[in-house]
Amino acid sequence: MIGFAKRNLKVYFKDKTAVFFSLLSVVIVIVLYVLFLGNSWLGMFEGQEVEGVSNLMDSWIIAGLLTVTAVTTSMGAFGAMVEDGARKINKDFVVSPMKSYKIMGGYVLSAVIVGIIMSLFTLVLSQIYVAVKGGEILGILALVKVVLIIILSTFTIVSMVLFLVSFIKSQSAFAAASTILGTLIGFVTGVYMPIGDLSESVQIVMKVFPISHSGALFRQVFTAKPIEVTFVNAPQEVITAFQEKMGVVYTLGEHTITSFESILILIATGIIFFGLSVLVLKRKAK
User: Fold this and answer.
1) Which residue range is the domain that position 235 belongs to?
2) How many domains does the chain have?
3) For the chain, which terminal residue's Cβ has fewer other Cβ atoms within 10 angstroms, N or C?
4) What are phi and psi of 166, to 5 degrees?
5) In this structure, which long-range contacts are made by residues 20-23, counting pairs with CB atoms below 8 Å and at least 24 apart in sequence?
6) Neighbours of 65 (CB within 10 A)
7) Residue 112 in contact with residue 70, Cβ under 8 Å?
8) pLDDT tens digit string along 100-155?
9) Nearest to 195 by CA among 219, 228, 177, 224
10) What SS3 state is found at 29?
């Protein structure tokens, strides 16, 4: 299985075009933030003498980028699986001595590794960016938390993407699905627009969408210190209102979803979708 996963990793990273397009959504977010969104969000603090506003918003967008990166790169990693099926290469694997569960495990493992590697790459670049701008980079404990969230999020995302990909039979359909997913993921996770600026019905959809909780967990870690600096003299209700508007925390009715609950949602979602994917793929194999 490990050898097969290595083969899939080579296929993914060898295709520079595929790697670029799997990161295209990330590039779009960065361009939008630099040219348009950044100034718009900073306008929320216009006329107020507060410190660290730029660093706070940079931290907020970096958290969103990590979520988008994990989704689009994991999707891109499954391109090898779709291509093997479309070109009937998978039939060669089936008649080989390798067990079918090891073949599927190789696809899943390679997708998880790609998602984690590209997310860590984005994390490193983001910290370099923050340091160059004179901001405060994450401490050791915060970095450990981010890495653990990356691993958990990637597992959940890969499970969901695997379920989606299990219904795709052609490379053109995969390309279309990748484009649609890359476009939508920024909206449903509140990266392109803060959740507080959307209608209540849309907010509910975003809050129940599992991957959104990955974004919330990242934001809680990345914005913890910047919020302390920017809102140093602000009352708690002001801080809470900002966190709810920017999707740092989610509330359903009067209940504020805790970090532990978000983690449970990600774990449960990953297990459920992985199980569903196995069932679908088993039926297709018959």
Assistant:
1) 2-285
2) 1
3) C
4) -65, -15
5) 21/76, 21/178, 22/72, 22/73, 22/75, 22/76, 22/77, 22/118, 22/178, 23/69, 23/72, 23/73, 23/118
6) 24
7) no
8) 667 777 888 888 998 999 899 889 988 888 888 887 888 899 999 999 999 999 99
9) 219
10) helix
Burial profile 146-183: b = 16 or more Cβ within 10 angstroms, e = fewer? beebbebbbbbbbbbbbbbbbebeeeeebeebbeebbe
The C-alpha atoms of residue 62 and residue 68 are separated, in whole angstroms, by: 10
21 touches 76 (CB < 8 A)? yes
Higher per-residue pLDDT: 225 or 49: 225
Q: Can you tell me the distance from the alpha carbon of 261 to that of 208, in angstroms, rounded to the nearest whole number? A: 12
Amino acid making up residue 100: S
Contact yes or no for 85/174 (Cβ under 8 A): no
C-alpha distances (whole Å) from 197 to each of 9, 98, 133, 275, 284 are 40, 52, 28, 36, 43
38, 105, 198 from 53: Cα distances, Å:
11, 45, 22
Return d(Cα 173, Cα 75) in angstroms, integer: 13
**What residue type is 26 in one-letter code?**
V
Q: Return d(Cα 264, Cα 152) in angstroms, integer.
A: 10
3-state DSSP call for residue 37?
A: helix
Higher-pLDDT residue of 238, 25 = 238
